[in-house]
Fold each of these.
Amino acid sequence: MSKSLQLQFAVPSDSLESYLSAARNIPILSAEEERELAIQLQEHGDLEAAQKLVLSHLRFVAHVARSYTGYGLALADLVQEGNIGLMKAVKRFDPTVGVRLISFAVYWIRAEIHEYILRNWRIVKIATTKAQRKLFFNLRSKKKKLGWFNDEEVSSVAEDLGVKRTDVLEMEKRLSGLDIGFDGPDDNDENISPAPANYLEDNSLEPAQLVEQSNYTENQEARLYSALKDLDERSRDILQQRWLSDNKATLHELAARYSVSAERIRQLESNAIKKLRNVIGEAA
């Protein structure tokens, strides 16, 4: 789907109700109309057909987006992300399968909204693994009914969602936490939890760690230059010019210097790097 087409479905945050009203007034396509437009798009790349397919389904995107308003994000943004999912679905829709577009598109609409919520709901990512994502979007609804889980409820949720008990407990803790600044508030209210700056350790300037890092760096550099000495003069010069020089040479510049092709220089460079990795790896 082209960027120009995407821009036509941008949701104005200042007049969301007007947008939603306009979306509701767009006629719904019949199954046959939908199929014909999808064939036009699939076989001829007809963007006008794609536009009609997208426009006729904007109301459904808004309906899906409304179910995610409990995450504290603007409905206009949720609808916009859902529209992106709808356009992706229209691009991939196969009219020969025999299902309606909305049945196929709802997965893509929800997927884009889910990604947006996970990116923006908290400063720190709250769900990264597949199990965590599943819990994030299912645990909230269960907690509204049950409150804090007891041991039996934790086991029940884990079994229903096919995840570990520890994953349920960890996500429950994450959902109950709040984002706080690293330095915390300026006042000294005893009821406020201590800021991370007051209890997190910074070991980056610890003398032993600095010495260890310095020794490691010097050791790695010594191995590198020792390995370079074992290369033939041309390979060593190529690596130095390509990687160890402030003004790095291009493949074509080195090809002209050695009267070979740029591809040959690339091969020599690749082989030399492999030799260095082998030597450094054996010494490690």
Amino acid sequence: MLTAASMLVVAGVAAAVGVVIAREFGRTDETDGLLAAYGVFIVIAIGAQAIRIAVLPDLARARDEGRLAGELAGFALALTAIAVPLVLVAGLASSWLASLLTGDGAGIAHDTAAETLRWVVPAACAHLFAGLVASGLAALDDYAIAAFGYAAGSSAGLALIVWRVEPDGIIAVAWGMTLNGTIALLVPLVGLVVRAARARMPRGAVRPTGSPLRARFSTFLVGAALPLALQLLYVVCLPFASRQGTGAATSFVYAYLGASALVTITGGSLGLVTSVPLFRSGITAESTARHIVAASWVSLALVGAACGVFALAGGDVIESVLGGAYGGEVGAELGRLIVLLAPWILASVAISLAFPLAFVTGRTRGLPWIGLGALVFQVPLAWVGAELLDLDGLALALAFTTILVCTVLLWELRALGKTSPGLGAAALTIGVIAALAFLAPSFLLGSIAAAAVGLVAYVVALALVRPRGLADGWHYLRALG
């Protein structure tokens, strides 16, 4: 709950930053450039979250064997060898990267992207180390300090953006992201140091021990390959979205971020905090399927409510939050995109629950190949989707590829046959309840009122029906905790 609450704060702050950008700058070449550079930040940040998961079994094992400090130091050294080149490239080749991201060698979008990259790449690298430190605390069964650090960093970053965006322009967003990453790293790092001091840990224990540097790079590569590939599926869509006209890429980014927030708060938080308990208790193909299905029921109950609201009142809600530039057809399009991404949300929730189990069970060898295959498949699929259905086609293409990745990942875990029926039942049950709850008010009331009544009806219906899978999922997670 602490981790989910922290992620909720982070997602809420990200939404607030999006509101600030929308109201201050609308949908322009400047926002296209900023959000193109933001895609790079997201890729590295996703890698940070993936590495955070990948190292958890090793750190939990090291803690049990009394060598946690040395294992953390070894991973930190390996991360430094990755982060330094990234920062240098962002500083020295920002113009070239901006051209690649925006499809333009000059202009406002290019210049904005280039300047933003110089700030957001170091910020993302700070999150690489923050994730490692958070995993070190998780190995000590401490989730509160890292949760507070992420929430505090996001809040401080938002405060800086609100303070400086009017006098300094859109670059203030990048400054806020840098402050966010700094605090998210420093808070858990201080917490870890304090715990070490209280335990009177000798300084020599911090020397890198365990696996050689090459093996740690391999751990990072295997751990980050699939999540990075999944994020790159979205990045692949950005140039196709940009070709739909000014502001189209901004709309697609906002829709994707909204859908991603639902995945992160639900499946993402559960995936993070259940890795260590599952590692210590052991897991089989049957328990893998049970874990994914149980957690998916809880996650999809929240997703169903959100999709119902956006289906009925997405345009009005988005216009009221983001401002007039997102009114009318633009707001309706954003709401429709989020609903079209519902299959992507379902698949992503399942992936975020299954992915940590690959490291718990040791079935990680195929992860890079799954990611590579998805990327190769996504390029032509995104092109076809954009040609046929514009942004709607890109959303559907992204969903289709992600569903394929989910299917292959479950097969790799030897849990596809046992998991698929449960996931299908969860999606069907939640979908039917949401449709019945939200559909009736849509014929009788305006969009906002219909969404509000539908939301109440949805909650009441869940309470009355009490789907067995949802109840079993809740009891399972409480017992696991």
